[in-house]
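#struct-pred
JK: can someone run the complex with pyridoxal-5'-phosphate? inputs below
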Amino acid sequence: MNRFEEFTTRFVQQMGKKEGPISPIMVNSASFGYGSSETGEGIFEGSVKKPLYARVGNPTSAQLEEILASMDGGIGAVVASSGMGATAMATLSLLRSGDEIISIGGLFGGTYSYFSETLTRFGIRTHFFDVDEFEKIEESINTATKILFLESVGNPNMRLPDIAKIAQIANRHGVALMVDNTCTPLSIAPLALGADIIVYSTTKIITGNASSLGGAVVYRAISEWDDKFKGDRYRDLHPFIYKMGAMALIAVAKKRAMRDLGMSANGFGSYLTMLGLETLPLRLDRIVTTVEKVAKALHEKGFVVNHPCLPHHPHHKRYLNNFAKGCGTLMGIDMGSKEAAFAFLNRSKLITITANIGDSRTLGLHMASTIYRDFDDETKSFLGITPGLVRISIGLENAEAIIDDFVNAAKI
Ligand SMILES: *Cc1c(COP(=O)(O)O)cnc(C)c1O
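RT: done, structure tokens with the ligand placed:
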């Protein structure tokens, strides 16, 4: 069965109870009474499974974590206050000063500045490569390399990685592969392709209606036998593997990031995220079809469209072979200049001009004047940011209505 169909059934069944409240139970308390000192001791020791304090876990968030882990076939997940919070959690719980990251493709502006500006201040260096620079990627791996980081779809450059091939490189050298799968939940299953850790901004298509900022990290189990995380490269993780076995990556994320840094999700946010997640398969299934219709129609009408469903796109074949369920809600339109891009966005009646993506509504933004305004020309060119680039995130509107609106908005 295709994954959209499979999860249409699974999500609605996982979300609601058969008895009592059908909507997920929303617990929004910051702290929890233990009842007795003995129970309190047991909770801190780990022998009693009850809520300790909301920074280290919340029952509503725990339900969301369980559902997201099952979506990706992970052993568990940890939800976070935002997508950047999730990326910070997933990376900082594994890194120490002197380590290196290899970042491939993309890249979302926030992640780029986190790697290039913030982590460098703490002695962590990131090397950036295009998705197809396989040899350079492999050559740059050394003993300090802790993470290969990859976006499932270049946002906004729309370049597509060969995830399985990059996973083989990571495995050959015993390095963790972390995939930002924000744009392609359900469409792409990174753990099945050989990745180890998945990060999401749930703010985007997973919630899908701008009601809640959130993020999540999904982890695979540590194997009982041979496992790259048992290698010398990950010696900081070894005490967690010794104590927690298969769950070591979850434990280190909770202790070294969530508890110590506090990028925790809240119950209300997780509740809203579950309401969105329940309809994710339906929304994404519709949108990936609409994206193709709109991209092809606009291309025929003379727009400069960047989407891999178009035959001239350098990753068109990869799109057909490896992205059977589409590559999310995004496409690029190059209007030629900042002035033309502004005029197009301002004249459109459908587009909501905003920095978000993956919403029920069609969203659009001029890239060079907003998210990428502080980046130098070399970086902009690496990330595919041209002066006239408008990033579009297609919504649930009718495809013909979107095409008509775009054509009208582009008329001078
Ligand atoms: C939005 C986004 C993020 C960051 O998520 P926030 O929830 O805004 O913190 C990370 N990666 C990608 C691909 C995104 O689109």
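RT: quick notes.
DSSP finds 15 helices and twelve strands in the chain.
The chain has two domains: 3-276, 280-410.
JK: thanks, will look after standup
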